[in-house]
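Researcher: Next sequence.
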Amino acid sequence: MLVLFLISCKKDFLEIVPKGKLVASTLKDYDLLMNNTSFYRLDVSDVTVAMGDELAAEQNYFQNAGPETQKAFAWADVLYTPDREVIYTNNQLLNLYICNKIINEVTTISNGTAEQRAALQAEAIATRAWINFDLINHYGKPYDETTAASDPGFPIIKEANINATNFKRNSVKEVYGQIISDLQAAIVNLPLKGSFVTRMSRPAARGLLGKVYLFMGRYQDALTQFNDAFNDLANVASPPTLYNYNDAFAAGGDFLPIGFSGPDYPGNNYSKNQESILLKTADLSGVSYGLVMAPETMDLYTDSDLRRNFYGNMHSDHTPIPGGLYRKYATYSHVGIELADLLLMRAEARVRTDDLAGARADIELLRSNRMPPADAGVPAGITSKTDLLKFIIDERTREFAGEGQHWLDMRRLSVDPVFSFLTYSHKAYAADGVTVSQTYQLRPVRFTLRLPLAILQANPGMTDNP
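Model: Next structure:
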């Protein structure tokens, strides 16, 4: 198991199930494994958040940010020191081990019904797909059908074997194929609603499969999955619903008061999850110090857009940010399957399959819950397919800025002919907040991260990314 090499080949990983204390043997035991908080609260920072070009840096503060964040912002080749590079990947491989254990063992136990065992196995399979999708978007190139079969990806790990060695990198195409196969197999046996919002369900798996197809450029397949996900949600008791910011920011609203740390909204309050189809959050506190919104990002918002309330002109120590710069008030990034993301992904798939009216309906449904309905319409001047597609991508930035989603969009759009001409840069502002002290330019090679050194050392012959 790769995770062993990520902790210097020690057996500490076995302490997940302490020897002599508990060995999973009943359906309840295996079910409880899926409640492990590591599956839904990724309390280790993913520095790719700092790689989205919707961000800038206020140099006076950013110079004190963690070294990984500074290097990620600069799109450096090497982001981590050897003692730090394994933290995020180690967490995901730990979860992958648990999933594989459940997948390979739960159907052999004697208690519980066959349907219960199949549902739990399906949940682990779909969660494995989510983990693999996350890993391939760190260590594999963006999916390009012309090169995916030869582009190095990440090892496909299907056994919970702590003694396995000498892993090889599967191709990007093989990894995506495994993800699709897992999700298709899981959907059949998944429940319409998980036992908790943090647990996988059928609409969540369909939404994830649609997202995978979207990243592959298989837009009709993506649209089918998004439609099926919404159809499933229509049959769920107490389905997720959009927060209406017009109400949430009105007197006595759910997001008030707005304090020094911003509003009491999902980005700051873990319990406010009514938009979550599958709740998974990643910590932002470790990667956001000194980061601000690029002025071009703030220019995307109209004055009546209530999402502007998620930004403030004060640092975390309550000192003013100079030069009219703003930072986002957010503790968490929602990285599971969210209703707003599902709407915007379906809108994009509709545009790409020439259903512009359907796309407008999805966009305007979201926007009418983010600003006064009178201002929520797609601007009249946006009439062409390309212009509407660009408007959707901008809407994604307005919705998810500073949360890591834009980096994923940058990656996938880099191989899209409509957007492949784009270049990306980061600006660090001097103490006045106006003067640009340094500019960093993203090189396409850095759309992929280099593999952790510990993995390379433990697997002789495994190739690294450039």
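Model: Confidence is low (pLDDT under 50) at residues 1-21. The domain at 2-244+334-458 is CATH 1.25.40.390 (Serine Threonine Protein Phosphatase 5, Tetratricopeptide repeat).
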